[in-house]
Every structure is written in C-alpha cells, then in structure tokens.
Amino acid sequence: MYLKKLEMFGFKTFPDRTVLEFADKRGITAIVGPNGCGKSNIIDAFRWVMGEQSIKLLRGSLQEEVIFAGTEERKPVSLAEVFLTIDNSDHRLPVDYSEVEVGRRFYRTGESEYLINKEVVRLRDVQELLMDTGIGKGSYAIIGQGQVVSILHSKPEDRRKLFEEAAGIHKYKSRKHATQLKLEAAEQNLFRLSDIRAEIHQQLGPLEEQARTANEYQVLKKDLAGLEIGLFKVKLGKLDFFRQEVEQKIAEYKKVVEEADAGAQNIAAKKQEFRDKIVELDKQLQACDSQLQDWRRQRAESANKSDVAKERIGNHRQRLQTVEQEIAQLEANQTALLARQNEAQVELGAVEKSVAELNERLAKKNEETGAIVGRWQQVNQEIADLKKALADFLDQVENKKSKLLGLTSGETVVAGDLQRVETSLTDFALEQEELANRKGELLERKTFVDNSVNDLHARRDELFKQRSQKEDERKTRLNLRIEIKEKFDQQSSRLKLLEEMQQTHEGFQKGVRSVFQARKDDAPGFAGIAGVVADIITVPKQYEAAVEAALENNLQAIVAEDRATVEQVIRHLREHSLGRATFMAGGLLKNAVRVAPPRGICAVDVVSCAEKYQEFITGLLGTVCIVDDLEQALGLSEQIEPSGLTAVVTLAGEVLTAKGLLTGGSVGKEQESASLLSRQREIIELQKDIEQYTGELAALDTEIKNIEQLFGQIENELKEHANKLKHLEIEQGTIANDLARIEIDSGKLEKNIASSRQEITQQQSEMERIAGQKQNLQAELDELNKQREEKEKIIAEKENALQQADNEKTAVNELLTEIKINSTNALASKRQVELKLESYRDNIQQTAAQLAEKNTEKETLRQSIAEAENILQSTQNVLPEIEGKIEQTQTELNTANQERARYFHDLEVYDRLEKERNDADREVRAKLSEEEIKMARVEAEHDEMLRRMANEYNLTIEDALKSEAVVEDYEKTQDEVEKLKRRIKRMEPVNLLAIEEYEAQKERLAFIENQCEDLEKSKADLLSIIKELDCTALEAFKETFHLVNEHFKQIFTSLFNGGSAELQILDNNNILESGIEILARVPGAKKTQSMSLLSGGQNALTAVALLFSLLSARPGPFCILDEIDAALDDPNIGRVTELLKEYAEKTQIIIITHRQAMMSVAEVLFGLTMEQKGVSKVVSLELPGKEKALVEA
C-alpha cells in the first residue's frame, strides 16, 4: 500500500485544483519552498482528509478556515475538498479494491461529507478503514512542525498512543469501547427491568388473592348453576385428587430445596473462612515483600559504595601513574641538567686554559719585541728607544681600549638582559594581580552560586513535598468525588425510574392507568380527578406496611371531586373496555367514623392528608387499629367486632378482620421495594440526597480545581528551579575549572617572579662591577692620552728616522693585537660559561623542588587508595550478610505463597462442591418448577371448566335442573345449593376482572424475566468479549513495544555515535493504560538525563530515533515529515539522511525541508511558490541527477 495522488481544491491557500502525483511506492519525495508559501498546508490536507477533527491541530480556530477565504485579487470559494488516492494492491486496507480514494468535502454553509471511492460514508467509516494500518488517527505517519520534539515532552500516557498505533490495537480498543457502551446499556436496562419486575411482583400478590376470590366466586356460581351435572362433579373430584398429589410432591421438593440451602450456607461459610485466611496471608506477603525491598535497597547502597570506592581507586591509581611519570621526567631533567652543568664546568676549564695560553703567548711576543728594539738600537739608539717607548705606550693604550670596549659591550648585554627581566617581572606582577582579582571575584561568585544552589535545592525539596501533598489531596478528592458521583448516578437513576413509574402509574391496575391516561389527554369529564388514595396521603415509614395492608386495593382507589365525575369516568371505561376502577367522591362515602381502639392506635391517626380528603381517609381507616405485632392483634380478636373495629393490622402488615380472617406471611423484596406508599417517600428522600450530592460534587470540583491550579503552579516553579539549577550547576563547574586554572597559573607566576628577581639581582651586581671597571679604565685612558700626545710629537719629529722602525713595530704590534683580541674573546667566553653554569644551578634547584612536591602528592594518593580499599573491603564484607537476609526473607515469602496457594486450592475444591450442589439444586428446582407448572395447569383446567360452563354451555339454574345429570341425593344437593347461595352473598362484591389482570401480569412477568435472562447472558457475553479483546491487545502491545525498544536502543547509539537509551513502561500491572517513559544518556554523560536537560539538537535526534524505531517495528505505508531537521546541525543532518535513505527502501517518505542536505537525498522534488499573494502554486523543479516533478496548479 502506498500513496498515489493527493488532489486539493479550495483548501486553505490552494483555491485552484492542485494535484500531487507520487510516482513510486518507495523512495523519498521532498516538498521545498520559501517560508509562508503553504508547504505545511499540504500536511494539513493529509490530516484533514484522513478525518482529523481538531481544528487546532490544523493550525486554525474555526472549521471554515480550511476553505480558501479569498485575497485582494481572488474571490473566496464556497467549499474545500481533498481527495487522497491510495494503492491497495496488497489489500492492507480492509476493502476489496486495489485502489482506494478517500475524500472529504466541507461547505461554507457548515455541511460536510466523507467519501470512499466516491460513495458518501460516515467519519467513523473512514476512521475504521484507516485504523491500525499505520496511518490512522494518532499515528506516526504524519509528523508536523514541532511534533518531533513534542513527542519527547508529551505526557507518558499521550506518548502511548504512538505505540498503540504501531501495535495495531486501535481497532481492539474501539471494539472494546463499543462493547462497554453496550454493557452499560445492558446494565441500565437490567436495572430498569428489575424495578419493573419488582413492581409486577408487588401487584401479583393482591391480584392473585383477588383472582383466587374471583375463581372461587365463579366456581360457586358454576356449582350453583350446574351442581346437577354429575360429570362436572366427577371431573372436579379428579382434579382435586391430582392437585393433592402435586401439592405433596411440591412440599417434598421444597423440603429438599431448604436442605440444599442449608448446605449451601455451610459451604459459603467455609469459603469465607478460606478467603479470610488468604487475606491474612496477603498481609503477611506484603510485609515480607516490604522487608525484602528494604534488604535489596541496603544491598544496592552497599554496592553503590563499593562502586564509588572502586572508581576512586581507579582514578587515584591513574593519577598516581601520572605523578610517577612526572617524577621520572623531572629526574631525567635533573640528570640532564647535571650533565650539562658538568659539560659547562669542563668548558670553563678549557676556556681558562686558553686564556692562560694566550697570556703566555703574549709574554713571548713581548720578549720578541724587546729583541727587535735591541737590534734597532744598534742602528739608532735614540730612535729605537723612542720607538720602543712609543710601542710600549701604544700597547698599554690599546690594552685599555680593548678592555673598555669589552666592558661596554658586556654592559650593553647585561643592561638588555636586565631590562628584559624587569619587564617580565612587571608583567608577571600585573598578571599576578589580575589573577588575584579574578580569583577573588570567582570566590565571591562561587559563594553566591553555592548559596543559590543550596537555596534552590531546599526550595525544590519543599516544592516536591508540596507537590506530593497536593497530589495526595487531589487523589483523595477524586476518589471521594468518584464515590459520591457513583451514589449520585445511582440515586438519579433510581429517581428517574420512580418518577417515570409515578408518571405512567406503573404498578396500578389497568383501569386506573386508563383513567389517568385519559386525564393526561384532556378527555372531557376527567378534570375532576384528583388522584389515587396512595397519592393524597402521607404515612410515616414505620406505618407504611400496616396502612398498605389495611387499604389493600383501596390504595388504588381514585379520588374524584363529585359523583358526576365518577359516573362520567365509569362510562368511559365501560364504553372503551379499559378495565375497572374503584372511586371515592363526595356524596358516595357513608359512615365515615373514627373508632377508638381498646389497644394500639387508630390507623387514621398515623395518616396525613389535605383537609378536604380527611373524610375519605377516615371512612377507609377509621375502623382499623394498628398494633405492634401479631400477638397483640390476636389478643384483640374478641374485642374487634364489639368495639366497632373492622380489622386489626400489625406493623409487619398482618391483618385480622372482625370476621376472624387472618392474613399474614412474608412479602418478597420485590414487593417491598415496589410499595405504592413508599414510592413518593422514596422520591422525596432521593431528591434530598441528589441535592446534597450535587452540592458536595460542586464543592469537590472547586477544591480539585484549586488543587490542580496550585499543582500547576508548583510544576511551573519546579521547572523554573530545574532550569536555574542547571545553569547554576554549569556555572559551578566553570568556576571550579577557572579557580583550578588560576591556582596553576599562580604557582607558575610565583616561580617565574622568584627566578626573575634572582636574575635581576645577579644582573645588577654585574652592572655595578662593569661600571667600576669602566670608570677606572677611563681614568687610565685619559692619562695615557696625554702622554701619547707628548710622545707622538717627539715621534713626529723623528718620523722619517723611525719609518723603518715603525714598519717593523707595526708588524709586531699587529701580531700582539691579535693575541690580545683572542685573549679578550676568551675572557668573554669564560663569562658566558660562568653565566650558563649559574642558570643550570637554578634549574637544578627548581627541579628538586618540583620533585619534592610530586613525591608528596604521590604519598597522598597512596594513602587515599588505601582508604578507598578499606571502604571497598568493608562493603564487600557486608554484602554476603545482606544477601543472606534477602535469601531468608525470600524463603519466608515463598512459604507464605505456598500456603496461600494451598488455601486457594481448598477454595477451588469448595467452589467445585458448591457447583455440584448448585447443579443438584437446579435439578430439584427444575422438578419443583415442573410440579408447579402442573399445579398451574390444574388451576387453569379448573378455571377453564368454569369458563366453559358459563360461556360455552350458557347454563342457568333452571337449565341445570333440566339437565340429565344424575343426582344421587337430592336433599343433600339442595342443602349444598343453599350453602352456595349464602357463600356467594357473603363474597360479593367480587372483582371478576382480577383473573384477567392476574394472567396478564403473569405473562408480563414471564416476558420481563426472559428479558432479564437474555440481558444477563448478553452481559456475560460482553464481559467475555472485553476480556478477550484486552488479552489480544495486550499481547500485540507487548510484542511491538519490545521491538520498538530494541530498535530505539540501536538507532539512538548510531545517531549519537555512542550513549544509550531505552523505553520503559511505567505501570507493568496495567500495561494497556500505562504511560511510556524515555530514558537517554548522551555520549559523555555519566547517567541518564531528563529530556528537558538535553539540547534542542539532542532532543530532535532522540525524537528521530524514536520515530524510526516505530517505523522499524511496524513500517507504515508512508511517512510524512514536516521540517524535522529544523533543530539539527549539518553533521546530525548527515546521520538523519542516511537513516532516511535506509528506510526509504521499504517505506514511502515525504519530507518538507529547507536544507540542501535533505534535498540531496530526495528522488522527487515538488517546489511551492506564491506568485500571487495568498495563493500557493506547485511548480516544476529541475536539479542535476534528480527526477523532475511536473505538476501545475
């Protein structure tokens, strides 16, 4: 299955018919275009045509906003329609078409249509067609702007819907919802039918008695009319004999049923004992489980301490290795420096030796010069002496100048070094001051941040506590509200039923109902009907049974204003065959007296009514006495008639008449609940209860709303605190790093400053020494210059004579000068070597200091490792003891479970025993029912005989006398006739319609009971269906969740180049309703982080990983993604595009994007533009190596 075509007309910014054709069922299609050109409207079109009802999700506020509203240049259109064509070759959609077109049309008038293959259907049909195909409502087939990250930040319960769509269980949940609605309807109908059945039971009692009286009356009448018919007498005798046999069997079966009931009670008591044991064991299991959790928590804490100790040991050992390497490096540096120092010492010796050799050589050359001067003395002693003196003098001058030049050069070098070192020292001092200022600022900021963090932690703990309290309060209020709402619903349902029964006069005789229906229909002559006796009187609850027994059928007596109204109503009933009714009206009632009873209370005294009806009620109840119990009633049996009373009734409803007739026994619960007198009282009580519950619900709703508002405020404050804590903790880390760097830099600066100060002292001493030497040499040069001028004057005079001597002297002087220069250079080299030696000595001292510092750190690390190893050893010693406790607790838990299972087994044994007894009881009850049916048939045959005598034979007394029936004893028969006449006279008046009404109510009761049985069966079937649906959905959800979780772990690690992630079900006890949590640990993090702590790009990558995990577990036919790359940088986009290419091999993917990297993987490109303001148009795009989409609006 894949998308073939999307066609839009009049939808949002597409006023013209626009068609997008998707060529291939696999691959990637990209929709590109500038912002505001209507790209997201295409996504909205997909959502809308597939049945989306939320206009907010369609980025609107009114439904009509989906219709093109017009522009300055274009008129608005009258409708919007979108058609989506889907290839269904694989029949993934549950229809017999290889191509399915889903359409939706909305008119500006507000009318809407849904279409499937051009046929108008319901929204539900579209939703069921797409359900569980991967493109249904709430699926991951369409991901709009911002939805990628919103998936992560949505509630866990809302996030579950994606997994339900992936698991394909929406259809199960939909069927379950429909089944639950049917179940609720069945329960409501069953409740209503139960009340009606109770009402019928209440009527059947009096009707049965009246019918029995009428039957007896008719039998007597028929006996009187056809006593002479011998055959009838024979048959009646046979029927009586058969009835006795049936009654005997009924009595036997009833005895068996009573014994079975007693046995059932014993079994029930035993089962309750087992259940109590199981409850006790459950409490014990809960205690053991709690203890087990404590031991496991202690084990986890010890293991955590052990892990921390191991980590500390590892870190310290790693640092120790680093320190040892640094020590080795420093020792190597120290060895190298000592070697260089020795080399410099050797070099110094060599330089000193060279200086000595040059001085010796100079002395030799001076001796040679003296020899030359001696030879010159032979030529001209005077010239030679002068030349010699001049040469000696010049030697001194040159020597002084060379020394002065060397000192000046050395002074320049030393001065440059001194200036350089002083500049460095100044820079070091400034840098040290800046570091100190920076450190002070950081320490001050650190104090502030630490205090802020502590304050935030304290406030957060307080907020957590407040949130927990509010959540508990909310749960308490919600539970209380549910309880009250259940009571409210029950009472409302009961009130509605009673009011309906009161309005329809349910439970009244046919004639009474006919009268009130006629009054309701405004029939002429019915305006004077006030009501029935049961409606006009009010009786305290404790006297209801007594008054109802005293009034019997008179409760249904109709109260009229006058006699004319009664006559009019009776004519109406007779003319329309609407049954019979009893009436009370002014002018009809006689002898309305109140008799003071010798004991008890007069019945009329406990009844309240309007003044105008008091005479009626006195006439009905003035001669009736109410006593507490049957014993008191029997005690008054001799005083009833003499005192003027007609009857004595007890509070339980037993009646003793003046003629000695005693009526009593049990009344069924159905008849009790359907009492005519209690109905009005119950309505009033229910109205009061409902009013009270309404007030309580309103108060609870207000409290819950206030609590939820406070809860929301706490949540917002917690989020704000979390953000603040995040930033402050980051700042803490930054400050700590900055302080550490400052400490390192300060240490380096202190060493550099000390070294610079020492070097300055040395350079200053050297400058002072050079200055002193220069001053002495300059004084000597000044004196020699004066002498030179005198000698040069003498030499000038003798220049010609000394020319030859000068030439020779010059040669010698040049040689001497060379030796002197070499000697000066050797002295300079000596000084440089001495300075180098001094530098090596300083470096050796610094290295020694660093070695001492590193050795101290090394010892500290070894001590820390030892302490951590001690902690590790202690935790490892505790763990076995905890494990033993856990094992012991688990053993106790297992023992309790075994004992609990044993009680469950015993309970099952008694369940089977109970079932066997129930089966046997049902069999006996079935036989009892058969005998009762036989009895009913006997009664029916008896009644049929009476009916036939009157209707079929139409025999009168005279006809009976003329019959050929054989009478053996005439006198005896005559006496029997007289007796029958007296009996018939005493029985009159008799309600002969009671027989018909009794049978009708019996038939109605049978129908109602059949309906109840059908509803009970239907209810059981619906519950079974719900259970089966839950099991199927649960298995599908668990399997899909496992697959998605595995894919999510793999894809997350691939996208992040490391890290880990997983999905977690929050409530394993209720998986189908549980939320789903996302846990993620990005590379570099030590533990899993909340989604709110991840960056935008990390959130987007995590959401993309979840989306493709769902696609991997259950590939949808297509997937539409709207700018999911908005929060991703280029490297992450590269990873996402690789995923897109991989999944495009098995799923049709449509993306909306601005990014070139995303466009580059698309095989088909649709470009959107808005050449005319407010009107979107699809244009063709051509890119090298890409297929061209040629779609014109």
UniProtKB/TrEMBL annotation:
It comes from Termititenax aidoneus. Belongs to the SMC family. Homodimer. ATP binds at P34, N35, G36, C37, G38, K39, S40, N41. Its main location: cytoplasm. GO terms for cellular component: chromosome; cytoplasm. Contains large globular domains required for ATP hydrolysis at each terminus and a third globular domain forming a flexible hinge near the middle of the molecule. These domains are separated by coiled-coil structures. Required for chromosome condensation and partitioning. It is found in: Cytoplasm. One of its GO terms (biological process) is sister chromatid cohesion. Keywords: ATP-binding, Coiled coil, Cytoplasm, DNA-binding, Nucleotide-binding. The keyword Cytoplasm applies. InterPro entries: P-loop_NTPase, RecF/RecN/SMC_N, SMC, SMC_hinge, SMC_hinge_sf, SMC_prok. One of its GO terms (molecular function) is ATP binding. The keyword Cytoplasm applies. This is Chromosome partition protein Smc. It holds the Pfam family SMC_N.
